[in-house]
Amino acid sequence: MALTLKTPGVYIQEKNAFPSSIVQVATAVPAFIGYTEKAERGGKSLLLKPTRISSLAEYVQYFGGDFRARFTVDKSNDKDPEAFILNGNYYKVSRADNNTAYFFNSIRLFFDNGGGAAYIVSAGTYGSATSVTPQKSDFDAALTSLIKEHEPTLLVAPEAVLFAEADAFSFYQAMVAHCARLQSRIAILDVYNGTVGRTYDEADVIDRFRGGIGINALNYATAYFPFVETTIVQANELDYRNFDGLKVLEDTLVEDVAQELLGDLKKAADGDDEQKRLLNQALLATSPTFKSLLNEVRRQLNVLPPSAAMAGVYAMVDSTRGVWKAPANVSLSSVVAPSVGLNNDEQEDLNVDGRTGKSINVIRSFPGAGVIVWGARTLDGNSQDWRYLNVRRTLIMIEQSVKNAAKTYVFEPNDGGTWFSVRSMIESYLNGLWKEGALVGVAPSDAYQVSIGLGSTMTPNDVLEGIMRITVKVAISRPAEFIVITFQQKVQESAAASAE
Fold this sequence. Notes:
8-stranded mixed sheet; 34% helix; 18 strands; 3-stranded antiparallel sheet; Rossmann fold; alpha/beta
């Protein structure tokens, strides 16, 4: 700005020496939607209010702990794949009605796999209730609350698989539409009924998922199969209260001492938690049947949808390698096995589907390697532009970073000086990404191109209407998904050494 010089003296004028720069947006900040034990901070409700956390301790402070699922025990037979032998008889341990909740353990799985900052949207609270039934309407309201939040880049709802099938697919479509509308995040989806093996018939869970998810904006979503068997829930977190009443145990435990201890539990006064804790420990020490039942309960509680674990993997890969590295060929922490084992042949049509083009990423177990994420595609698997997750997410990062920086130039003169500043700012940012390996090319001109100006991206009419048009082209690094090594025999070209 020109100085106004009216009084004799010495004046100081400062000028900016450096151009504007682009600050890169965060790339792996998930927004989780689900039911929590509570939703409160400082005496105020956090229900349907997106809340940023950075640790599990912070989650527990605001949203509480796990839902105590209750189980029943029934006699079964050797034809039931879920049955197990106990004292010479076949039994089946099943959840009581409306006793499935994934959210708290999914958050723990997220942090165990490298997760950091995240947003929690409590769709409802269960408190001390003995049952919980997720409602799609609650999740729809939670999704709407995220529209005004700009930081989240991932959208995760592990408990959507608990809806009726039609409601689950309807909500999945709403998640994808939400991401496409905002253009700043992608949805990580779990295959509905993802603990069931592949059957390749009309009831196949993969075919039903592909049919239910629709065809709109698939490049803003990715899906994983199957559910995973974890070690999140520890044995010391379970006790007699995980069964649907003491009658369940009375009908199952065969040890006389166990029956006596159950009688003592019945007589224990309400609120006498220490006595009940000691009686539970006595049951564990004296009743192998009780211990076996709790082990089965723990096994079932540890089967979780993989979406939260994958959100953690994204955060880990982004922080160690960069968003341009495909989040695959990495192991999952606190996971012992996929709930459905798959081989190469069974994965073929999940990764590449000629009919619908909807790729499903697989979690597999490999000898000597552990449980590995073996896929890095969006649901738009046939697209040359948006097939790969790292390409979709890298472009979101670039788009949002440039968009935020460009706001500085709103209402600036639409002339050559502004155009030069904008182009220099974007090129400087892209040059940094090229040096880090996000963009490919021998020279910067091979990796990116920024165009702006009259006769290039704008017409005289654009200038008159106050429109500044910028065109950015980038060559994003793509994963080597298929590595082909060719071996061929070679004819001998030199004579063997002569015998002495």
